[in-house]
Design a protein that fits this description.
The complex is a heterodimer. By secondary structure, chain A is of the alpha/beta class. Helix content of chain A is 30%, strand content 22%. Chain A is built from five helices and seven strands, in the order αααββαβαββββ. A four-stranded mixed sheet of chain A has the order 4-7-6-5. In chain A, strands 1-2-3 form a three-stranded mixed sheet. In chain A, a hairpin with a 5-residue loop joins strand 6 and strand 7. The N terminus of chain A is likely disordered. By secondary structure, chain B is an all-alpha fold. Chain B has a single domain, classed as Ferritin, core subunit, four-helix bundle (Ferritin), CATH 1.20.1260.10. Chain B is built from ten helices and no strands. Chain B is globular and about 55 Å long. The mean pLDDT of chain B is 97. Classes of the chains: A alpha/beta, B mainly alpha. The interface between A and B is medium-sized, with 22 and 26 residues.
């Protein structure tokens, strides 16, 4: 018991911030588990503020039901790593943008079958067959962050990560 | 100042709350699956925006009330939403037209709030504006497609516009608090948004081959808590659980 408390205190007083970033890379997005929270770009900052670790998290969409789960998952990961003095804060500004999804995140999305967001506002290629012959089915998809598209070559429907 | 800001934040939050609830009534009933999903998602965005506006209203009021308290524990006369958003869904065309008219208003309102001198208001507006521009893109696309569609869809969209037109004027009606907020650079006078709304919306209605009704008469009262009979029915459903089982959580 004493040993554990000591460890906790040590981790809090000298949190290696780079380590914390790596821990959060292990936390999957609850709705698109192929992406980590770091890939998704919702972890805005990790700072040590007077012995306390502060993790700032941006919501993707204001009504996204995953937001609360994300906060809980971050807290669970920090606790798992032995931290107890931390705070998970919601940050609205600047508003989250799909441009914040990492390069590796974009690759993971495509490999998972979700077309990554594009500046043009529409998917570049079918994540199944790579064809550029695509049509919009609906501006909304299975989660607030996605739209539904269809490939006119292989006829498969697919999700497209909305660009905001 | 805080009192004026509180009133204003209730208007913003009650608009998205009541419209969000109305749109959610479509869940499981939309004409096609994709529209069902889209409507549920729109509704989710609106409820999320409500959390931000009413959450801030509670902070400004300083009595410890949360967004949930405002949603579930106030009576109709405390609600400050526009009469437009409490209007029944009607057919899909009417739901869409109501959304379109409101999206246009939100869009021009948020453009001003995004440069508000109040930092919290500005932050919320900048966040929400992204979602609203997406909503407007969708609703205007569908209004144009259906207005300029078959004879049946055109006739329904025209009827929807005529039904809802008497509720448009209230959006641009100034209340006493608005002058206070406008002087402080926090929020615009609603009347000052009319030109921008016209410039944004009238060309789209034209493209949809819809004729804008000429009557300038409009219904008002929502912003002061005088509502149509429809709001009570919405609240009866929305608030039932918290009224019957106070403090229930899951």
């Amino acid at each position: 018991m004493t040993v554990m408390t000591e460890r906790k205190q040590q981790a809090v007083s000298e949190p290696d911030l780079q380590n914390v970033w790596q821990w959060l890379e292990e936390v999957p997005d609850p709705e698109i588990p192929v992406l980590s929270l770091v890939d998704l770009g919702v972890i805005r900052s990790i700072e040590a503020q007077g012995g306390e670790l502060v993790v700032a998290v941006s919501p993707t969409y204001s009504g996204c039901p995953a937001t609360r789960i994300i906060h809980e998952d971050v807290a669970a990961k920090l606790r798992e790593k032995g931290l107890s003095a931390f705070r998970v804060e919601a940050v609205l500004s600047p508003p989250w943008s799909s441009e914040w999804i990492s390069k590796s995140g974009r690759k993971k999305l495509a490999a998972y079958g979700i077309a990554p967001p594009q500046a043009s506002g529409k998917p570049k290629a079918c994540p199944q067959c790579g064809s550029a012959q695509l049509e919009l089915v609906s501006q909304f998809g299975s989660t607030p962050c996605k739209a539904s598209w269809r490939c006119l070559s292989c006829l498969e429907p697919f999700d497209y990560f909305k660009c905001i | 100042m805080d009192k004026a800001l509180f009133e204003f934040l209730c208007r913003m939050g009650d608009n998205t709350l009541v419209l969000g609830h109305r749109v959610s009534e479509w869940c499981g009933h939309a004409p096609v699956l994709e529209e069902d999903i889209a409507l549920a998602n729109m509704s989710l965005d609106l409820i999320g925006q409500t959390q931000l506006w009413l959450g801030l209203a509670g902070e400004i009021e300083g009595k410890g009330r949360s967004a949930d308290d405002f949603a579930y524990l106030r009576d109709a006369f405390d609600f400050r939403n526009l009469l437009l958003v409490e209007q029944p869904n009607g057919d899909f065309g009417k739901t869409l037209m109501r959304q379109f008219l409101f999206d246009g208003f939100q869009s021009v309102m948020l453009e001003q709030l995004a440069i508000s001198k109040n930092e919290r208001v500005r932050e919320i507006a900048q966040k929400v504006a992204k979602e609203v521009s997406y909503h407007l893109e969708r609703s205007s696309d569908l209004v144009v497609r259906l207005g300029d569609g078959s004879q049946e869809s055109h006739q329904r969209m025209q009827a929807a516009l005529e039904d809802l037109w008497p509720y448009v004027g209230e959006m641009f009606l100034d209340e006493a608090e608005d002058a206070v907020l406008a002087d402080a650079g926090i929020a615009p006078q609603p009347s000052s948004l009319k030109t921008a709304w016209d410039e944004l919306m009238l060309p789209l209605l034209g493209k949809a081959c819809l004729e804008v009704p000429e009557s300038g008469y409009f219904q008002k009262g929502g912003k002061r808590g005088t509502h149509s009979e429809h709001l009570g029915f919405i609240l009866a459903e929305m608030q039932f659980l918290q009224r019957a089982y106070p403090g229930a959580t899951w």
